[in-house]
Amino acid sequence: MSKNDFRQSIGTSWILLLAAWVLVTTASLGSLFFSEVMDIPVCVLCWYQRIAMYPLVAILAVGLLAPDPGAVRYAGPLAVAGWLIAVYQVLLVAGVIPEKMQPCVQGIPCSETHISLLGFLNIPVLALLVFTLTLMLLFASYRMESP
């Protein structure tokens, strides 16, 4: 790999990392808007997804400011954890997982949706979409960085 090819792959990797940062930042701000401005209650599974999402904003920002190939490796496990929780919640909302397996039976039910766009885009599906796209961008960035 020539020096020019290496620079170009680093530039593409940085752009992919920037796209992932914009995505998780938008999702984090959106989740805060839903809960703090629109007063939509936050269930336990949503809190766990936020625990996985919010640190991604800082981790990816550090990876952008001081180009660090390790940022992808640090962000990956959080994105996978959030993705798994989001899949569980989407299956719960869809009725695939029985209600007796709900982690949040008391208080705010995890199977309840408050927003529905186009008939199928609710908050759990949006979270799953964000984590999926983030993982795809992180994987593509990692592939660009590795020789």
Roughly how many Å apart are the termini? 8 Å
At the first level of CATH, the class is Mainly Alpha
Structural class: mainly alpha
Number of domains: 1
CATH fold label: Bromodomain-like
The SSE string, one letter per element, is HHHH
Taking the sheet with the most strands, its summary is: none
Tertiary shape: elongated
Query: Uncertain runs with pLDDT below 50, 5 residues or more?
Result: none
- Rounded mean pLDDT is 83
Kindly describe this structure.
There is one protein chain. This protein has 147 residues and is mainly alpha-helical. The chain has a single domain, classed as Bromodomain-like (Up-down Bundle), CATH 1.20.1550. α1 packs antiparallel against α4. The longest helix has 35 residues.
Q: Keywords, please?
A:
147 residues; mainly alpha; 4 helices; elongated
